[in-house]
Amino acid sequence: GNSVTQMEGPVTLSEEAFLTINCTYTATGYPSLFWYVQYPGEGLQLLLKATKADDKGSNKGFEATYRKETTSFHLEKGSVQVSDSAVYFCALSDNTNAGKSTFGDGTTLTVKP
Amino acid sequence: DVKVTQSSRYLVKRTGEKVFLECVQDMDHENMFWYRQDPGLGLRLIYFSYDVKMKEKGDIPEGYSVSREKKERFSLILESASTNQTSMYLCASRDRHNSPLHFGNGTRLTVT
After folding, report:
1. What share of chain B is helix, strand, coil (3-state, %, to 5)?
2. Tens digits of per-residue pLDDT, A51-95?
3. Short-list A85, A83, A93, CA closest to A35
């Protein structure tokens, strides 16, 4: 079956540091890939997505590139802020009509001033 | 903006009770999902539905059932609640397979 493996946390960074959260996946066919973010007390919300190989998703300074050859979708940001503190989930959806999604375990990021 | 509304933020139930968790979405999405979220385990799919009255088991359906009588509403039912069902439950909906999921804010269920 499909699976997503993402970097274990927690991750603690100082403000303005560079962020990388690794994500690799196993799937048949050509899944769509997503990063979601969860702030305390809230549900998940989409951060960015990519639907085919070599696509780059970007939003709010975060970026991730769909790498089919390495089955990876690593999340990066050049300069993190305290407000980026949250839990980040990598996910894929298969190409059935419903798009059943598989999630990684989540990585907790804390950014200190 | 898509809104997914879960009826309760917090619920406390006793072992053996029948529990209903309700979810409503307002964007006419075909597909709806129930996940549970536990520390260190990420999100695990319980059930999903791709149309009214249609449902499919996810990865951990045991002890749960669902109902989708109307397109906008997807209910999760715990037939006889047990303490190992204490968890955060997240409802989500989406349009097509490669569109993002839209999540509710979750229901934190405690079974005592």
Report:
1. 5, 55, 40
2. 999 999 999 999 999 999 999 999 999 999 999 999 999 999 987
3. A93
Question: What's the confidence (pLDDT) of residue A42?
Answer: 86
The pair of three-digit structure tokens given for residue B109, joined into one six-digit string: 């269920």
| Closest CB from A95, A98, A102 relative to B48 | A98
For residues A107 and B42, give the distance between their C-alpha atoms in angstroms, rounded to a whole number. Answer: 9
Q: Which residues of A touch B105 (CB under 8 A)?
A: 41-43
> Residues of A numbered 42-61 whose beta carbons fall under 8 angstroms of chain B's beta carbons: which are they?
42-46, 49, 51
CB crowding A4-16: b at 16 or more within 10 Å, else e: bebbeeebebeee
Short-list A64, A79, A76, A89, CA closest to A111: A79
